[in-house]
Structures are given as structure tokens and as C-alpha cells.
């Protein structure tokens, strides 16, 4: 084949020059991209800048394991598994530059909550440590997951005869004979590709469990989340869970969630005061569907948390 | 210059190019073998190592007890393992280990059991894993040589050859996969060989005879090569269509039964059968099993732009964006330029009658000189096809960029076609004429340093974790992590953690997470695995490995729960981005 289509010298020269500029730009960008930027000195400066009294959120997803290795504040289960940002009037956010994907997830996890505002920030090497405040946010009154206040709530299965429920080291379990029908554990779980500190309930097919916190302090609203843990290996589950909230004998609301909703928020208006909080959970089936069809053997843990809030911004 | 002098000059140049090509191949092999011990064993290699030990046993039976090797029961027992992939590379790995592997490490379970070839190979020169990887590394080096010569032809000189050969092996993902006892780089090289043989086969019966076995060997490496048959058919039909419809050339009956395709029809299946002893007993039934395995290959996880996909369809943009994110921009720009210019040139060429063909077409020489070759169209088709295939919504999620590595040799050939010509055209400028002579005439070769620099920088930076490497255009590994692109998926980034384990800094037992138990066995055989690291669930008094992938967070949470800590003890990072943790 002949070079029937050739190019003028000027055009060829322009293209070569463009390629040269592109290569130089790539090499320049590579000299920034291809190096470690987080050394011990950077982490040391972060450590001295972090206020241990403030919750520390790692706002850049990929930075999280590094931050946990270097900063005890980043490895605390309470902040690591935070349901959203609503509980904290003031907190710190550590990001790599302005990459805030994990922080934005947490903001989105609290729909209806006031947006936190950055009140100060400092750059430490490539890292950025910001202090955020929730101006005029509702105040946290009580937290079902507060071990000092509630431990793990009492577990019962009122619709079944012959069921015995008892406490375990980290939760409670109900059995009928040797058969486990329901188990609740206070733990960290993965929901929607984020760690969540929650009460994890696993129920046999069609079973209903009831959790009671006899001494819960209500505010103006109950705010919480429900999600299904460990969904990653599955194609889908489909089986919903129904959550009913009661204050004593009065029903505050009934909610139905599926795995598709991820970490779904729920809220209910309440009157302030101390009263029993009763949470009923009922799942249809606990199994899952995969390429071989329905597999009843897979656990289907429901992960939930509830807090009460009072003041401006609460429902 | 006389004809004799010109011939001599040409012979000298050819010899010089031959030496450069051979040196390139040798250097590639040396670099790959030298850098391989730092590349941890990927999940798939674990099973391929095990398969190679079985297949190698069969190969050694041919020497020691041929009657046993010919026994169908023994053969089936040895080839049953990993029969969802053809045997060729694993058999080659087994033979390589029979020759070169060191024996299992003293004290390892395999050494104590004194089973499957405890004495290692005949020459104890390489770790068993490296010995098994060697055939794939040799094929990769051959690929560089093939690309060099094909690039020399397309670029009409050394520059095109260097760009094609070095451009291929310096791509971070290619460099990574070229180390592995796996099929992805070998099949990319084999597919390139099929194309080069096919081109010659249209006008040379000797190459027509060679085409069937070449395609057979390619298919015996990996199934991707099967697609070459329809693609070559399409290309051949396009050539005939251009001859008849554009140039008005008469078609002959012999062109309907061309020797290259007859060779494929007869010799390809025979070669596949010969190279895969598992098929010998029940060829059709076992081929069907092979087909259905790959057709239902649907539930891998792959992260793309922050979303994890575990069932098809992947977004259509996936292979295109990943190619953009893993192949340096300057090379991609050259590929696009080369493709566009090549197609334009070919369009102009087919409209121009080349005069009478050199010979009458026949079944033996179906497209002699004077018929359209459509080389550029072929290269563009072979570049685009693997990416289009992965883009199809009905295609199972196979995984990462390795599944379209078959496109990369052809991409580099497109680049090699345009790059030297840009210099030729530019230097035709009145003011630049002097750059065509003296030391300046080497400018295109010297400027290759600039063109290949971004790939080299990325590969050097990423080694031995180039499966997680990304180009500067997306911000390297940090930028890709922020964009939510896949960080790794093969449980291989672990070697520094094993070193800590061997010094007792890391207590056992250990939770392996994504590290394949057969990879652990391979490390044990080579004395690289900490003795006290037995596999277990996460527990407070042990260690746990965690390989970061978007869908793996639930495993990390399991580690936190099992080990009662959320603080990793050690991390392997690539440019700050965590790849693997040890708790």
C-alpha cells in the first residue's frame, strides 16, 4: 500500500507537538500521582491536631484503613459505624484534599437533618482536617444502642408458646426446644457497603421478635435506620421486614423495608418523656435467592438503630 | 546505488533489526523473570499451579511409563482438575517445573509427605511458581518480538517496531499479567500471531497450512481466540466485496474455498484436540461442558465508578473507561490517530486500481497481491472487537482489563503505523530538512522516550501491584480510588505481610480472606509462608488478611467482630491507597 493519504508538514508538526505536550503533561501528572504522600510526619501532625473529645469522621473512603491504623479516634466503633451525622453537634472530618465521598454518604444517610457547616479547617500535608457544626440541630436525647443506658433491650417472642428467651454476652436469643427462632446482637455490621453500629436481628422464617427498652427517654421524634447486612454476595433477597414502633401500648408507626433500600431512614413524632420503647420486627423469610434458586440456609440479618431527638429541627 | 548494493544494504538493515528484535525479546524475558518473585500469586494461579502439577505428572509419565500415560483412566484423573480451561499453558507450566523447579521447601507439608515430585525438577534453578510462570513469560517476550517485527513493517523501520513492542509490555496491566501463570497475555500474543499468519496466508500456501495449527494453539491457550474465526471470515469477505464491488475484479471459484479457512476447518480442531488430553475420551461432551461453564460465568463482582456490579449488565462504558484509565493518553491518542489515518488511507487505496494482480487468485492463494488487503480495517476491527464484546449487556461479568488485553497488540500496531510517518511528514518542512540527516535522524527513536515515558513511569511505580495501577489521567491509584474504580480482585498483594509473619511479628493462625488456599500451599511449598499461619476464621489471638474491594467490606466487618479490633497492624499501599491489610 502506498501513502496515498499523507499529511502536510505543518499539520504533522502540530500533531507531533501536541503529542509531545500530552506526554509531558502525563509525565508531570505522573510525578504527582505516582508517589506516597502520607508519611509518619503527616500522621504525627494530624494526631496532634485532632481533638480526642470530638468524633472524627474519615471523609475519604479509601483513606479509612490508613486513618484507623494511625489514629485511635478514627478506629472507634461509635464513629466508624455512625448511622449518620445527626447525633453530633460538633465533629471533625479528615479528608484527602477535598475528596469527601464517605462524608457525603454520611450526610445523605440523614435525610431531613440539617446540613452540617464547616467552621474551621486546616491543611496538614495533603490531608485536610475540618471542624463541622450542626447549627440549630435537634439534640440527642437517647440512643437505643447506648450500652450504659439500655444494655441490649429485652427480647421476647409473644406469639409463640414454649419459647424461652435469654441474654447472651452481646445480645439475646430465643429458642423453642433446640431450635433458634430469633437472635439479637449489638454489633458492627455492613449495610450498603458502609459499616454500621446497630442491633442485628436474625429471625427464622416468618417469626416476629419484640425488643423492649423499658426506660427509654423520648424527645420530639424518634429517628433511626433499618438495613439488611451482608447483602453483597447475593443477587437479591426480596423478603421485606416490617418494623413496628410502640411507646408503651401506643403504636407510633409501622414501616416496611426491603434490601433494595440500603440504609433506610425512619422517623416518628413522639411526646417527650420516659416510657417503654417497644420495637417489633417481623421478617417473611430469612433466606436469599441466588443462581441455584432460594437458599433457606442464608441468614438475613436486619440491622437497626433508633435515637430520640428534641428541639428545633426535630419533627 | 546499484541493485546489488541496495540488496546488501537491505540485508544489513534486516540483520540489525533482527538483532534488535532478539535483544528486546531476551531483555523482556530477563526483566519478567527477575521481577516475578515480587508479584504475589493471584487466586487463579493457585488452581493453575495445582493443575500444572497434575499435568506435569502426566508429561513425566510419558518419559517414565508411556503405557500409564496412555491409560485413559490415569489421563482423565490427571486432567480432570481445572478442565474448564484448555490445558496447554498449564501443561507447559508443569513441564517447565519438571525441568527447572526447586524441590518443596524443607519442613513444608509437601516435603514431609514426599508426594508429587518432591525432588523438584531436573535443574533446581527457579522457585516452582516462577518455573511454572516461565512459559507464559516466554510467550510474552515472543509477543514483544512479534510486535517489534510487525511494527517495523508497519512503521517502515526501527521506530515503529520499538513503539509496538515496548509500548505493549510497558503498559502496567500487560506488564503485570505477563508475569502470571495464566492465559491472558499468552492469548493476546497468540491472537496477534494468528492475525500475522493469516495476513501472509492469503498469498502464501505455506502460511495457509500454518494458520490452522496457529489458531488451534491460540484456542488451546484460552477461549477468546475462538472469536478470531468469525473475525477473519468477516475480514476475508470484506476483501472479496471490495475486489468485486469497488474494483470490479472477477472472483474465482477457488476464492470461495480458500486454503487458509480450509486449514482452520481441518487443522484447528485437530490441534485443540491434540493439545488438550482431557478431550480425548469424550470430545463433544467435554467441549459442551466447557462451553456451558463459560456461558454461565456470570457472578463475579466488579466495582465501576463507585457501584459494585455482581450480575450483568455492566455499564456499556466499562471497558472503554477502564482502557482510558489504564492506558496512557499519549498512546491512546496515537492509536486513534493511527486508526483514523489508516482507515482513510485504506479508503483511498481501495478506490485506486493497483493494476493487474500479480497472480490469478486460487484456493491456495485466494488474495494475491493486487487484491485489497484491508490491513487497517482488520487492525481497527481487532482493536475494537474485544471492547465491544465486553460492553454487550448480555455478556457475563468476567472481571478486569485482562479480558480485553487481546486488543492491545493491535492498538500498538495502529500507533506504530502513524508515529514514524508523522516525523517523515513533519521533516519534509523546508526548515526542518536538516533534521533528516546526521545525528538528528535518530530524533523519532529518541522521542519514543517521551511517548513511552508515561507507561514506563506508571509501570515502574506500580510494580508489583500493577493490577491496581491507573494512569495519571485519572490521578493514578488515588484518583481511581476516589472515582470508585476497582482496586484489585485477586488476593495477590500480600508478600510483605508474609515477611512480617515469618519473623513472628504476626501471630497465627490467619484468616486468608481472598487469598486462595492453593496459593497458600504454593507459598508453603516454596518456604515463603509463615509456619504458624494455619488458616482459620478471624479470632482475637491470630492474624487476618483483608484485600480491599468495594464489595468486601462485610468481610472486614467480620474481621473486626472476630478479632475485636478495628485497627490494622500493617497495610500494603500503592501511592497511599490501601490494597491489603493485616490485622
List the main descriptive attributes of the protein structure presented here.
heterodimer, A: 315 residues, alpha+beta, eight-stranded antiparallel beta sheet, five-stranded antiparallel beta sheet, 19 strands, B: 583 residues, mainly alpha, four-stranded mixed beta sheet, two-stranded antiparallel sheet, 6 strands, 58% helix
Q: DSSP helix count of chain B?
A: 23
β-strand percent of chain A reads 35-45%
Question: Termini separation of chain A (Å)?
Answer: 77 Å
Termini of chain B, distance in Å?
74 Å
What this model shows, in words?
The complex is a heterodimer of chains A (315) and B (583). With 315 residues, chain A is an alpha+beta fold. Chain A contains six helices and 19 strands. The model of chain A has no long low-confidence stretch (mean pLDDT 89). Chain B has 583 residues and is mainly alpha-helical. Chain B contains 23 helices and six strands. In chain B, the strands form two sheets. In chain B, strands 3-4-6-5 form a four-stranded mixed sheet. In chain B, helix 22 (517-525) links the parallel strand 3 and strand 4. Chain B starts with a helix and ends with a strand. The interface between A and B is large, with 62 and 77 residues.
Walk me through the topology.
The complex is a heterodimer of chains A (315) and B (583).
Chain A: H1 9-33, H2 40-49, E1 56-58, H3 64-70, H4 77-80, E2 90-96, H5 101-108, E3 117-124, E4 127-133, E5 139-143, H6 147-150, E6 154-156, E7 163-168, E8 171-176, E9 179-191, E10 194-203, E11 208-218, E12 221-228, E13 241-247, E14 250-257, E15 264-269, E16 273-283, E17 288-290, E18 293-295, E19 302-310
Parallel strand pairs in A: 1-2
Antiparallel strand pairs in A: 2-4, 3-4, 5-19, 6-11, 7-8, 8-9, 9-10, 10-19, 11-16, 12-15, 12-19, 13-14, 13-16, 17-18
Chain B: H1 3-35, H2 43-64, H3 66-70, H4 72-79, H5 88-100, H6 109-113, H7 128-155, H8 158-169, H9 172-177, H10 184-201, H11 205-221, H12 228-246, H13 259-275, H14 283-295, E1 302-304, E2 307-309, H15 318-326, H16 329-351, H17 375-391, H18 408-426, H19 443-462, H20 476-483, H21 495-502, E3 510-511, H22 517-525, E4 543-547, H23 553-563, E5 570-574, E6 577-582
Parallel strand pairs in B: 3-4
Antiparallel strand pairs in B: 1-2, 4-6, 5-6
Helix pairs in contact in B: 1-7, 1-8, 2-4, 2-5, 2-22, 5-7, 7-8, 7-10, 7-18, 8-18, 8-19, 10-11, 11-13, 16-17, 16-18, 17-18
Amino acid at each position: 500500500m502506498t501513502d496515498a493519504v499523507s499529511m502536510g508538514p505543518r499539520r504533522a508538526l502540530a500533531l507531533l507537538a501536541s503529542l509531545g505536550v500530552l506526554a509531558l503533561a502525563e509525565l508531570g501528572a505522573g510525578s504527582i500521582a505516582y508517589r506516597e504522600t502520607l508519611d509518619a510526619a503527616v500522621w504525627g501532625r494530624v494526631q496532634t491536631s485532632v481533638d480526642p473529645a470530638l468524633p472524627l469522621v474519615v471523609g475519604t473512603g479509601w483513606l479509612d484503613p490508613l486513618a484507623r491504623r494511625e489514629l485511635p479516634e478514627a478506629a472507634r466503633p461509635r464513629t466508624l459505624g455512625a448511622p449518620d451525622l445527626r447525633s453530633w453537634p460538633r465533629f471533625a472530618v479528615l479528608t484527602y484534599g477535598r475528596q469527601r465521598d464517605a462524608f457525603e454518604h454520611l450526610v445523605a444517610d440523614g435525610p431531613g437533618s440539617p446540613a452540617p457547616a464547616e467552621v474551621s479547617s486546616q491543611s496538614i500535608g495533603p490531608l485536610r482536617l475540618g471542624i463541622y457544626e450542626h447549627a440549630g440541630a435537634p439534640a440527642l436525647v437517647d440512643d437505643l444502642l447506648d450500652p450504659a443506658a439500655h444494655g441490649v433491650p429485652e427480647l421476647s417472642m409473644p406469639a409463640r408458646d414454649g419459647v424461652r428467651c435469654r441474654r447472651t454476652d452481646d445480645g439475646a436469643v430465643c429458642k423453642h426446644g433446640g431450635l433458634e427462632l430469633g437472635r439479637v446482637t449489638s454489633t458492627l455490621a455492613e449495610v450498603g457497603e458502609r459499616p454500621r453500629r446497630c442491633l442485628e436481628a436474625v429471625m427464622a422464617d416468618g417469626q416476629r421478635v419484640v425488643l423492649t427498652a423499658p426506660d427509654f427517654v423520648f424527645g420530639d421524634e424518634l429517628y433511626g435506620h433499618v438495613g439488611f447486612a451482608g447483602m453483597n454476595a447475593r443477587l437479591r433477597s426480596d423478603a421485606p421486614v416490617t418494623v413496628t414502633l410502640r411507646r408503651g401500648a401506643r403504636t407510633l408507626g409501622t414501616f416496611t423495608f426491603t434490601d433494595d433500600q440500603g440504609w433506610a431512614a425512619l422517623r416518628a413524632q413522639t411526646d417527650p418523656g420516659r416510657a417503654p420503647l417497644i420495637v417489633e420486627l417481623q421478617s417473611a423469610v430469612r433466606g436469599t435467592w441466588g443462581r441455584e434458586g432460594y437458599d433457606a440456609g442464608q441468614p438475613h440479618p436486619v440491622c437497626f438503630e433508633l435515637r430520640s431527638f428534641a428541639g428545633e429541627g426535630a419533627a | 546505488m546499484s541493485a546489488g548494493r541496495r540488496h546488501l544494504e537491505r540485508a544489513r538493515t534486516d540483520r540489525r533489526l533482527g538483532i534488535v528484535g532478539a535483544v528486546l525479546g531476551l531483555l523482556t524475558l530477563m526483566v519478567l523473570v527477575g521481577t516475578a518473585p515480587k508479584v504475589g500469586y493471584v487466586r487463579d494461579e493457585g488452581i493453575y499451579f495445582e493443575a500444572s502439577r497434575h499435568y506435569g505428572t502426566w508429561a513425566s509419565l510419558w518419559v517414565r511409563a508411556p503405557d500409564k500415560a496412555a491409560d485413559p483412566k490415569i489421563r482423565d484423573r490427571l486432567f480432570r482438575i481445572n478442565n474448564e480451561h484448555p490445558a496447554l499453558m498449564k501443561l507447559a507450566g508443569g513441564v517447565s517445573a519438571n525441568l527447572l523447579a526447586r524441590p518443596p521447601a524443607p519442613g513444608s507439608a509437601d516435603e514431609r509427605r514426599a508426594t508429587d515430585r518432591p525432588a523438584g525438577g531436573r535443574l533446581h534453578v527457579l522457585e516452582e511458581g516462577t518455573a511454572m510462570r516461565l512459559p507464559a513469560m516466554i510467550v510474552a517476550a515472543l509477543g514483544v518480538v512479534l510486535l517489534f517485527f510487525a511494527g517495523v513493517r508497519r512503521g517502515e523501520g526501527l521506530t515503529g517496531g520499538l513503539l509496538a513492542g515496548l509500548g505493549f509490555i510497558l503498559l502496567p496491566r500487560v506488564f503485570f499479567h505477563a508475569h502470571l501463570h495464566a492465559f491472558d497475555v499468552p492469548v493476546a500474543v497468540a491472537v496477534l500471531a494468528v492475525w500475522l499468519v493469516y495476513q501472509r496466508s492469503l498469498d502464501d500456501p505455506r502460511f495457509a497450512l500454518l494458520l490452522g495449527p496457529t489458531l488451534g494453539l491460540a484456542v488451546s491457550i484460552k477461549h477468546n481466540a475462538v472469536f478470531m474465526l468469525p473475525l477473519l471470515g468477516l475480514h476475508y469477505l470484506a476483501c472479496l466485496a471490495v475486489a468485486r464491488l469497488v474494483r470490479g475484479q472477477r472472483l474465482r471459484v477457488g476464492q470461495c474455498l480458500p486454503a487458509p479457512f480450509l486449514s482452520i476447518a481441518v487443522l484447528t480442531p485437530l490441534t485443540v484436540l491434540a493439545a488438550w488430553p482431557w478431550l480425548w475420551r469424550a470430545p463433544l461432551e467435554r467441549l459442551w461442558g466447557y462451553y456451558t461453564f463459560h456461558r454461565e460465568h456470570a457472578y463475579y463482582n466488579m466495582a465501576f465508578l463507585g457501584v459494585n456490579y455482581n450480575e450483568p449488565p455492566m455499564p456499556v462504558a466499562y471497558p472503554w473507561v477502564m482502557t482510558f484509565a489504564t492506558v496512557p493518553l499519549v498512546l491512546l491518542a496515537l492509536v486513534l490517530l493511527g486508526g483514523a489515518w489508516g482507515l482513510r488511507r485504506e479508503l483511498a487505496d481501495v478506490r485506486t486500481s493497483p493494476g493487474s494482480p500479480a497472480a490469478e487468485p486460487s484456493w491456495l492463494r485466494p488474495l494475491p497481491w493486487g487484491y485489497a488487503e484491508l490491513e487497517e480495517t482488520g487492525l481497527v476491527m481487532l482493536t475494537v472487537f474485544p471492547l465491544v464484546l465486553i460492553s454487550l449487556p448480555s455478556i457475563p461479568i468476567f472481571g478486569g482489563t485482562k479480558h480485553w488485553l487481546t486488543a492491545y497488540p493491535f492498538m500498538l500496531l495502529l500507533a506504530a503505523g502513524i508515529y514514524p510517518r508523522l516525523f517523515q511528514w513533519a521533516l519534509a518542512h523546508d526548515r526542518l530538512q536538516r533534521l533528516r540527516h546526521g545525528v538528528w535522524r535518530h530524533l523519532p527513536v529518541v522521542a519514543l522516550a517521551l511517548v513511552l515515558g508515561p507507561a514506563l513511569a506508571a509501570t515502574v511505580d506500580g510494580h508489583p501491584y500493577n493490577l491496581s495501577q491507573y494512569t495519571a489521567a485519572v490521578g493514578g491509584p488515588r484518583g481511581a480510588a476516589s472515582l470508585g474504580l476497582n482496586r484489585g480482585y485477586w488476593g495477590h498483594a500480600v508478600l510483605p505481610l508474609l515477611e512480617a509473619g515469618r519473623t513472628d511479628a504476626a501471630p497465627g493462625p490467619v484468616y486468608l480472606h481472598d487469598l486462595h488456599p492453593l496459593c497458600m500451599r504454593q507459598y508453603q511449598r516454596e518456604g515463603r509462608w509463615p509456619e504458624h499461619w494455619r488458616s482459620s476464621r478471624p479470632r482475637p489471638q491470630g492474624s487476618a488478611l483483608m484485600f480491599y474491594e468495594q464489595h468486601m467490606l462485610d468481610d472486614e466487618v467480620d474481621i473486626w467482630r472476630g478479632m475485636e479490633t478495628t485497627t490494622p497492624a500493617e497495610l500494603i499501599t500503592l501511592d497511599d491507597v490501601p490494597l491489603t491489610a493485616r490485622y
